[in-house]
Amino acid sequence: xxxxxxxxxxxxxxxxxxxxxxxxxxxxxxxxxxxxxxxxxxxxxxxxxxxxxxxxxxxxxxxxxxxxxxxxxxxxxxxxxxxxxxxxxxxxxxxxxxxxxxxxxxxxxxxxxxxxxxxxxxxxxxxxxxxxxxxxxxxxxxxxxxxxxxxxxxxxxxxxxxxxxxxxxxxxxxxxxxxxxxxxxxxxxxxxxxxxxxxxxxxxxxxxxxxxxxxxxxxxxxxxxxxxxxxxxxxxxxxxxxxxxx
Length: 246
Known about the structure:
This protein is α+β, with helices and mostly antiparallel strands. It has one domain. Helices cover 18% and strands 28% of the residues. It contains 6 helices and 14 strands. A hairpin with a 5-residue loop joins strand 1 and strand 2. The longest helix is centred in the middle third of the chain and has 14 residues.
């Protein structure tokens, strides 16, 4: 069953298992890591981290055909792990969505984009198959200490596996510098502060396969989304301030 729904700016969302074959066969020409500032219109407060969110952007070599059943005319998609649920446990569900866009621009809330070279001829299917092969979904957010963390961890793990599988091209001597880029807390303009990557709440299979990537500074405790610890400790949702800092 398809899970379409309308989002802001009339963007349509589709869960990955519902992506049809013609979209999966589309060649990807560019891959970006995109950091969004969710405090985009808020004031800059000294020593207060900005609320960051991390996604991947896939730009197509050619637009999706206009007669396609889904994503007609789309020029790129975001692969985005979104917060989905309430602060009832130490972990909360994340929903992985594929979002089409009809231009090749970054999000208006984007404050950092870095491109990684794509292997010649790599398709949307090659990217999605890495998620399946490594059992990366379902994945949730880690909600300890009143924060929702996990998008940077998920996207960096996804990127690492894409490199490992030869879908992305990064020379060995460039890996450390690449993954260091996930650490800072980013704001508007050239603003960045030292930061860390909070652990996502992966399912039990990927929890055991999680790579501690050289160059990334991790923080917090690792909790499996499926574990008793991840499910058993309840919070009062009304008393929790949601912060998504990556």
